Amino acid sequence: MPSNLEITQAGDRLRDESVSPTETVLDVAPPVVDAPARLDETGVELKRGAFLNTIAMLASNFRGIFTFLVARLLGPAALGIFSVAWSTTDIISKIGVLGLDNAITTFIARSEAVGNRARSRALFRVAVVLGVAQSVVTAAIVIGALRFSNNRLHLQPQMVSALALVVCAMPGLALYRISTAISRGMKVMQHDIYSRGMTEPIATTLAFLLALAVGFKESSPEVAAIVGTAASGLIALALASTLFRHVPPQKEVVSPLGEARSLLGYAAPISIYQLINAFIARLDLIMLGYFVGRAPGVTLATVGVYSAVIGTANGLRKVNQAFNPIFAPVVAGMTATGDHDVAAATYARLAQWMLWILLPLVAVMSLAGGTILLIYGPAFRQGGVWLGIVALASAINAFVALGETVIMVRRPHLNLLHSSITCAVAAGGLLWLIPRFGAMGAAFGILLPYVVQGILRYATLRWVFGWKDSWSDIRPPLVAAGIALVPALVCRAFLGGIVGQVISAAAFVAVFGVHWWRHHTHRKDERP
Question: Are 100 and 261 spatial neighbours (Cβ–Cβ below 8 Å)?
Fold first, then answer.
C-alpha cells in the first residue's frame, strides 16, 4: 500500500498535469492597478453567493424538526442509537465519495475559468458515476462485515442493527454531495436550497412519520434517513444536469478515463484528510456510545442527550457553509490566474464576517444552553454545560475551515498532515477523558483537537504561504465580544434559572449588536 507521502506526491503531479495549456497561459499575475477593483468585484460575488448559501443553510435546519420528533416520540435512547449509527455512516461515506465532492469543485472552477464548458460536462459525468459506484460497493462491504463480525464488536446490538440499515443511505449521500459540488464549481449556489434545504428535511420528516405509522418503530429514523438522502441526491443531480444542457460541440476529444485518473489523483489526499476530519467531528459521539455502561453516567439516554447537544452546536459549523461553497471556486480561480494577493485579502474579509456571526451564537449557546435544549424535552436540560463547550469547538472548526479551503486548493497534502495530527490528539484525549469524566470528558475532548488544528492552519497560512497577519481584520469582533461578555456575566451571576439564562444571552447580543452597527457604519463612512 502506498504511503501518504506517495499519495500526496501523485495527487500534486496529476493536478499539475490536469491543467490545460489555456490555463497555463492564464497563470500570470494580473496588473497591480486592477487589484482593488478585482477585490471589490470579488466581494460582491462572495456576498451574493454567501446570501444564497445562508438561505440553504437556514432551510436545512428544518431537519431539526426530524430530530425533535425522534426525541419526543421515541425518547433520548432511540435518538442516541440513531445518532451514533448516522455518525458512523457519515464517516464511512467519505470512503465511498473518495474526496470527489471537493475535487470536482476545484476542477470545474478551473475549467470554467478558461471557458472549457465541454470539459466541465465530462467531469460532471465522470464524478457522478465514480462517486455513486464507489458508495454502493462500500455500503455492501460494510453490511457484509457487520453480519459476519457482529459478536466481535462488543457494541449494543441495537446500534449494530441501526448501522447495518442506515449505511444504505450512502449512495444518496454521494449523489447529493457530488452534484451539489458541481453546481458550486459553476458558482450556482441556489441549487442547494432546493436539494438539501427543502427536499431533504421534508422527505426525511414525512418518511419518519410514515415509517412510524406502518410499524417500523425504533427503525423509523434509519428508514427516514435513507429516503431523505435519496430524494436530496436525485434533486441535486437533476439541478446540476440543467447547467450542461446547451453545451456546444467539443472541439477536442475529452477522455473520460483520463479525467477519472486526474480526479482520483487529485482527490486521493483530499479524501484521506476528509475521512480524518469526519472521524474527528464524530469521534466524541461514537466513543461515548462505545463507553455506554463503562464510563461514569454514560447510558443510551446520555448518548441521546449528547447527540442533541451536537446537533444544536453543529449549527455553528453550518455558518461556514454560507461562505465556503462560494469561497472554494473563487479562490481556485484566483490561484489559477495568479491573484494570490487578492485571495489573501478575500480570506481576511471572510474571516471577519464569520467572527461577527459566530461569536454571538457561541455566547447564546453558552449562556442559555439549558433553556435551548428544553425544546427536546426536560431530560435534555442536563446537557446545557456540554452545549457551551461543544459550541466553542464547533465555532473554532467553522472558522479555521476557511484556511482548509485555501490549503486544499494550493497544497492539499498539508491538510492531510494537519488532520492526522488533529486526529491523534482527538483520539488520545477522548480515550483518556471519557472513561474518567463521561459526557463532560467527550465535550472537552473534542474542543482540544480543534484548537490544535486552528494553530496548525494559522501557522501554514502565515509562514508557508506568506500571507500577512490579519489581526486588524479580526480584532473588531473580538473586542466587541469581550465588552459584551461583561454585562452578560453580571446578569448570569445575579439571576438564576431560565430567566437568568435568557436575560444574560439577550444582554450579550444587544451590546455586541451595538458594536457591530458602529463598526458597520464606520466602514461605510470610510468608503469613497
Answer: no
At residue 480, the 3 state secondary structure works out as helix
Q: Write down the pLDDT at residue 325.
A: 59
CA angle 42, 177, 465 (to 5 degrees): 45
* Site of grid cell 473563487: 330
| C-alpha cell read off for 34 | 486592477
Return the DSSP state at 196.
I
**Rounded alpha-carbon distances, angstroms, from residue 264 to 219, 275, 342, 495, 511:** 36, 15, 29, 57, 49
Quickly state the pLDDT bin for 330 (edges 50, 70, 90): low
What is the per-residue pLDDT across 296-324, written as a single tens digit (0 to 9) for each? 889 989 999 999 999 899 888 877 766 66
> Hey, what's the cell of 197?
434545504
CB 326 within 8 A of CB 184: yes
Does the pTM surpass 0.90? The reply is no
The DSSP line for 113-161 is HTT-HHHHHHHHHHHHHHHHHHHHHHHHHHHHHHHHSGGGS---HHHHH
H/E element, 172: helix 170-185
From the list 178, 161, 263, 202, the residue with the least C-alpha distance to 69 is: 202
Q: How many CB atoms lie within 10 A of CB 17?
A: 12
Tell me the per-residue pLDDT of 158-200, one tens digit each, with 9 for 90 and over.
Answer: 888 899 999 999 999 999 999 998 888 887 777 877 888 788 9
| 215 phi, psi to nearest 5 deg | 110, 15
**For the chain, the helix, strand and coil percentages under 3-state DSSP, each to the nearest 5:** 85, 0, 15
